[in-house]
Input
Amino acid sequence: MKIIEGGAASAKGFSAAAAAAGIKYEGRTDMAMLYSEKPCHAAGTFTTNIVKAAPVKWDQDIVYHHQGARAVIINSGIANACTGEEGMRICKETADAAAGILGIPADSVLVASTGVIGMQIPVDRITKGIGLLSPALENGKEAGNRAARAIMTTDTRPKEAAVQIEIGGKTVTLGGMCKGSGMIHPNMCTMLGFVTTDACISKELLQEALSENVKDTYNMVSVDGDTSTNDTVLLLANGMAENPEIREKNEDYKAFCQALDYINRTLARKIAGDGEGATALFEVKIVGADSKEQAVTLAKSVVTSSLTKAAIYGHDANWGRILCAMGYSGAQFDPEKVDLYFESRAGKLKIIENGVSTGYSEEEATRILSEDEVTAIADVKMGDQSATAWGCDLTYDYIKINADYRS
Amino acid sequence: MKIIEGGAASAKGFSAAAAAAGIKYEGRTDMAMLYSEKPCHAAGTFTTNIVKAAPVKWDQDIVYHHQGARAVIINSGIANACTGEEGMRICKETADAAAGILGIPADSVLVASTGVIGMQIPVDRITKGIGLLSPALENGKEAGNRAARAIMTTDTRPKEAAVQIEIGGKTVTLGGMCKGSGMIHPNMCTMLGFVTTDACISKELLQEALSENVKDTYNMVSVDGDTSTNDTVLLLANGMAENPEIREKNEDYKAFCQALDYINRTLARKIAGDGEGATALFEVKIVGADSKEQAVTLAKSVVTSSLTKAAIYGHDANWGRILCAMGYSGAQFDPEKVDLYFESRAGKLKIIENGVSTGYSEEEATRILSEDEVTAIADVKMGDQSATAWGCDLTYDYIKINADYRS
Output
C-alpha cells in the first residue's frame, strides 16, 4: 500500500471542482462537484438520526435503488434538513440541473449538504453554482483539494487522504475527502465523506466493505455527542483501474479493504483533530476487553465525556473522570482491575494500576498531555479485544462557535 | 401543603452543624453533620455507575441491611472515589469516630463525600472535624443552611427546601438539602441529597416513595452528561411528628409523596440552575408522547445536547439542534409532526409547526431566551404522556471550571 498525496479526484476517471455560489458564505467557495467519466457502483452509509436531511433521503434512494452513479453535488452553509417537501424538491432540482449540464441521468446524481438546519437553500444559487462547476472539473490533487475546501463549514482545514494498491497487476487508487467539525457523533458514518476509487469491484462487496469499515473508523469519532441529521459517506467505484473485478472475499478484497481502512481512518482522525474549537486530538484505546462491543462502549463513553474533554484541554491528568466515564458507560468491568496510561509524542506514563493511583508525577503527566495528539489507554484485563475512539478537547472556542453559530 | 423556609434540620428531632476541617479547601466550612434524636428509617438511592465511591458502598450496606440510622457525616473537597480498600477504611473510621462522640452505634452512621476523585481523605482531619461538629448541632433553618453551605463544591449557592403537611391531625415536616453542579447526570439520584422528615412511615414505603420520586426529579437533571461515582440521596424519617404510621398506600401516603415530590423537584431544579458555569436553567418539556419512556428519552436527549446548550447560552433559537437531538435519542416519532415552542417569563412563541419553521421573529425568540429560566416545549402529537427534564446552558465558565478543576 502506497500513501500518495491526493483526495477525491485522484483515482482514474474522477474529476472535481469548487465554486463560490454565495449560498450562505461570502468570499469563499461553498459548492463542490465530483464527477466520474464512467458509471460507478455507489455504496453509502447514512445517519441513523430519525430526523434525516433531504439529501440523505435522496442519496439513500439512489444508492439502494439505482445503478450507475456519475456525480455528487455538495454545498456547505445550509444543511437542507428539517425543510419538508420543499427540501426534497431542491434535491431534485439540483440533480436535474446537474444532469442537464453534464448530460447524464438525474438518477445518477447524488447530493449532499452541510450547514444550518431549518433554512431553505436558494435553489437559483445552486443552479448558478452548477453552471460554474461543470466546466471547471479536473482530475488530480489540486482539484480534489479545492473541492475539499469548498465543503468546509466550521472546519479549519481540508481533510483528504489517498492511497494506491496493486490488484491483479493493475494500480488501483482510492482517494477521499470529508468534512466535519461540530455535531459530530457519527452513527453509521460521519457528517460528509466522499471516497472515490477506480477499483473494479461488485456493488455488493463495495457496500459491505464500506458498512463494515465505518464501524471502526467514522463511527468511533465524537466531537460533541450530537449525531447529525446529514451524516453521509459515499464510496464510488468506476472500475477504470481495469483490475479483475473483485467478486468474492479473496486476497484482492482484503487488499481493497485495507486501503479503504487507511483512507477512512485517516479522515476520521482528521475530523476528530479538527473538532470545533479543539486544540488536541484525543484518542482513547480500550485494551484487554472481553468483547469488541464492550471495548467500543467504554472507548466511546470516555471520548464523549465533557468533563474528561475539559480536563484534556487543561492538560490535567484527571484520571478519575476517565474511570467515572467508563463506569457509567453501561459496560461491565471491575474498576479495581483497571490500569490506565497516558501517551503522546512526549512519552508514556502509567497513571493508575488496579484502579488506584500509581503516585505518578503530575508534571510528567502534564508534559505528556500538552501535545496536540494525546492518547489514554485503559486495560480492563478481561480478554483480548480492543477498540479505539477519537475525539478532541472541549474548549472555550467550542462554546464561542456554537453559542451563536447562525449569525 | 405549606412551603416553609428551612432545610435538612427543620423536621422535629433533626439537627445539623457545619465545620471547617481543612480537608481540601481553606477558609470555608467543608464538613456537615445531620443528627436525629431518635433512630430513623433510612431510604436511599445511589449512583448506577459501576465505579462507586467508598461512601456509596458504605451507605448501601447501612440502608439495605441495618436499622435505626441516626447520623450522616458529609465532607466536600475529596470524593473518596477510586480509593480502594483505604477508602472503605476511611468510611469506617469516620463512622466509628462519630459513633464514639455521639454515643450511637457505628452502623447507624451514614457517610457521604463529594469532590476530587482518586485522592485519599486525610482521616485525622475528618476526626478533628467530627469533634467540632458534634457540639455545634442545632435544630432549625440557620443550622440547616450552614450544613447546606458546607457540602458545596463548585456550587455557587446552597440548595434547600422544606414543607409541612398535616397527617392524622399532626404536622409533618419534610426538609432537604442537596449539592451538585458538575458531573451531574444522575442515574438513580443526584450527586448528594439529604431529606429529613419527622413523618412516621414504614421503611418499605419510605424507600418506595423515594425510589419512585427520583425518576421524575433528580434523574431528570443533567448538567454535563457525566453520571457521578458518588450520587446519593438519603431520606431519613424519625417518626417524631407522631402521626399515625403510614403503612399502606392511602391518602396519607399520597400526601407524603406529594410533599416529597415538592422537596425533590425544588432541589433538582436548583441543581440544574446552578450547573457549573450556567447562566440559565434550561427546562425541556415533551408533551403528546406515546409513552412515558418515550417522553423521558426525548427530554433527556435535548437537555444533554452540547450544541443545544451552547445555543441557549447564546440566546439563539437554533431549533434545528433540538429536533436533531430528539432524532438521535433512540425514541421513535415523526419529525414532520413536531410543534416546538420556547417559553420564559418574557413570553411564549411557536417556533416550528409540523417540523418546519413558523417564520417566527428571531428578535422575539432571543428576547424570550434571554431570561435566566427558559423552557423548550415539544409536542410530538402521538399520545397524552409527558416528561420534563432540567439542565443548563453550556458556557465558557464550564470549561474554565473543568479544564483545571484539581488545582
Summary: Chain B has a mean pLDDT of 90. Residues 2-273 of chain B form a domain with the L-amino peptidase D-ALA esterase/amidase fold (CATH 3.60.70.12).
